[in-house]
Each structure stands twice: as structure tokens, then as C-alpha cells.
Amino acid sequence: MELPVIDLSPFLEITTKINVDDSLNPDDQIDEKLRSLCSEVSRTLRETGALLVKDPRCSVEDNDRFLDMMERYFEQPSELKRLQERPHLHYQVGVTPEGVEVPRSLVDHDMQEKLRAMPKEFQPSTPKGPDPKWRYMWRVGPRPSKTRFQELNSEPVIPEGFPEWKETMDLWGHKMISAIEAVAEMAAIGFGLPRNAFTSIMKQGPHLLAPTGSDLERHGQEGTVFAGYHYDLNFLTIHGRSRFPGLNIWLRNGTKVEVKVPVGCLLIQAGKQIEWLTAGDCRAGMHEVVVTKRTIDAIKKASKENRSLWRVSSTLFAHIASDAILKPLGHFAEILLASKYPPMCAGEYVEQELAVINLKGNK
């Protein structure tokens, strides 16, 4: 199955017009064709937990510039990278070394039972331990001056020897946040909520540009699990196109699909916070990153061309603001499943999830 590609241009044109002219009624500007596009966004997120989008503001050149810099960073010796490690801040800024992140499927016994019940062809790969990937956390956007969750809103860490670091991270991070905000508004309209239902509670959220680095020279054997079967704890996750394939997602019907991101497109995945806000109507998408035959082909090609063998994902986690309340919104509060999603501070929810996947154990 190929995920549909949603071109954000028509929606961006209308929202730009609305933002420039306060006298315009947003509901009058969104015509039937655009509402249909918004419905396709919400339907695709509901059915697949993922979405491919094309945003004219996010160029291939921007993504390549970011990947080039992150490849150079991850190629450094481990001892240099560990200088940016901040375990006392739950690894929410700076670098997370390989062997720290624990896939949910390794520690969640209920999940393990569900996996065993899956048809063999749809079962995820079995990780042998913590993920053998590195990650770098870089905060994007303003943080609140007062918050109960200071560790989730900490100052960024800048490595030495990368004078272009802040500019490159901020540029790509802000562009991806802008794409997420457009998708969030379109999804809200498609779900029958006010256009700003999601974006209004994303303001000053602990958004994180969180690229991963996986060493394919050391761990490039077919079947190696870089990110074990899991969901994302945030609101929506967005990725630029990686130079090495390997991402599998699970549709709501349990089917396993290998994702192919076309050049110039971005991949968006539903996280646990949007599940909370829609009372389970839109479920957090399950996914994994594994070395596949297509990954091996890409490794061979990169080796011939003398390119880096670090697989970098340009991942950004968009969050609901830490001090905002997670609860089913609008008509979702009336459905039967709403009681499974009681009101909770978003920051409190995030801390609970971090404790499970071992990122809070060193506080």
C-alpha cells in the first residue's frame, strides 16, 4: 500500500490570506474542495497513523544540508559525542548514546502478548536489547517562562566544532514545525473541531528536533533493529526523507507496511497525545526501523559513491505544551471511549512515558 501524498499548498494559501486580513471569516474561506482535503488528512491519520505531505516551504536542499551536518556529527568518536550527554535532564537535550533507549515492546508485557497474537507476516522484528542508535535532542521554538516541567523545557546543548549548528538546526526545525502546524489545523477541520483546536495548545510546547544516527558499517546486517516496535509519546512526529530506508509502520487493521518517502516529501506520524485528544479515534501509529534488503542496497550504493554510512533520520517531535491539559476535545469528549483518556497534564504524561522507556532513570 502506498500512502497518499497531501500537497499543503492550497491550505497554506488560504491560511496566509486569513492571517494577513483579520476581517476575513476563516469558515468562509475554506471551500468544499479544501474541506475534502482536510477530511483526507484526518481519515488517513485515523486509518494508517501516518501521512505523506509536500510543503513548498521545506526544500530537498534544506533536508540535505541538515543530513550532511548530522552525518558529520555522528561520525565523530563516541567520547566526543558524549560531551553533549545530559542524562540528569532525561536526555531531553543533547545526545542520547546508543544502548540507552529501550523499545516499548521489550518491557511492555501486554504489548508482547498482542504481538504474539499477530499473524506471522505482520509481526515486528524482535529486538535483542536497547536500540543501537544515537539520538540528538534540540529544542525548537520558545519555551514557557514558568512551567512545572523544567527538565522538559531545558536550554539546548551546542557541540564544539560546528559553527553552523544552531542556524541549521533552527532553520530545519522551524520549517518542520510549520508543516506540523498546517497538518494539525487541517486534521482539526477534518475531525470536525475548530481549526486551532490542536495548535492553540501546542504553543510553547517542548518540541524537539531529534535526529537519530545509526552506524550501518557496524550494524548494517539485515534484520538489525535500530528502533524496536513502539509508538511515539508526543502529538505528531515529522521526518524528512532518510538516505537509507528501513521504516515499517502498522495500519489500524494490523497490516505491516514498509514506508517509501518520495523525494521532496515529509512523513508525519500520529503520536499518543493526538490519540488522547481524539479519545482513541486517531490512534498512535506503531512503527519500527530495521535493516531491510532495501537498506542493504542503499548501503552498497553509498559505499560505491564513498558517502557516509550513518543512517540519519531528520525526526521532529511536536508536543502539546507541558502545562496544558490532555483530554478529549469537542465532540470526542462525548464518545464511549472518552473515559479511557482522563484529563492529565501533558508534562506529567510525558514523564510517565519516559520512565517506562528508560530515559528518566538517571534523574
Based on secondary structure, the structural category is alpha+beta
β-strand number:
16
> What is the distance, rounded to the nearest whole angstrom, between the alpha carbons of the first and last residues?
43 Å
Provide the succession of SSEs: EHHHEHHEHHEHEEHEEEEEHEHEEEEH
Q: Helix tally?
A: 12
Spans of at least 5 consecutive residues with low confidence: none
Integer average pLDDT: 91
Tell the overall outline: globular
**What fraction of the residues are assigned to beta strands by DSSP?**
15-25%
Tell me the helix content: 25-40%
Largest sheet: number of strands, sense, barrel closure: 10 strands, mixed
Radius of gyration: 20 Å
What's this model, at a glance?
GO terms for molecular function: dioxygenase activity; metal ion binding. The chain is of the alpha+beta class and 363 residues long.
